[in-house]
Give the backbone structure.
Amino acid sequence: MSNIFAVINGQFVQEQDAKISINDLSIQRGYGIFDYFRTRNNEPVFLQDHLDRFFHSAAVMNLPVEQSREELEQLINGLIAKNGLPHSGIRITLTGGYSDNGYTPAKPNLLITQSAYTFNTEAFGKGIRLVTYDHQRQLPQVKTIDYLQSIYLQPFITEHGADDVLYHQQGALRECPRSNFFIVTKKNEIITPAEKVLKGITRKKILSLQGLDVKEGTVMLEDLHDIREAFISSTTKVVLPVLAIDGKIIGNGKPGEITAEICRRLVEERGGSE
């Protein structure tokens, strides 16, 4: 029997007993939000940034959060203490609630879960290959539980010899389903799409790095033909170099120097070696 605990609506319960009803709108209609962050040596990484985004997502989706920010922090720290998983991922989910008619949002259910996480130190060297697809996520500024399109596209990604998909809207690049996208131009400008994307926490940290020409802007499909490097960023991946897009090699097909520098600086900001 697992000794891992979860939180359901403010109560600590053993993971195998953590249940919600089948009439919750998260199940009936896929309506809900979440946020995800890591712990390192039992310390949440960038917790305040993640809570900012969680409350923003909840407000946009008209889902009231019963717990205050301080109460959420207490629950998170209590879960960390109970589970004894120093290196982990913690997910906060807020559902649409138990709807009487299967359509109208009700009182949300709050779920907090924790699982062990080990950073893949070999992933950076291997990089990632992307395939582009014309699609715009609904409510892109919100971290919703809706990943329908990206899961549906798994066979498409495999057929094209890629590891993930890169969305664009009529040629304007957006994001990957679980990460933000950056290019490095021949002038060493580091640009990430500015509009209609989820503004990731790692993305935010990259934009704040000093000594680099990092900015938000418009990135078009045709821009990919003349770039020096490309990479993605996320909570779990930190930074991964993009080695090819739509079968076309980026740069020399190896992780670039600027991408490596950004990854190194982010790891240091998180508190040292991953």
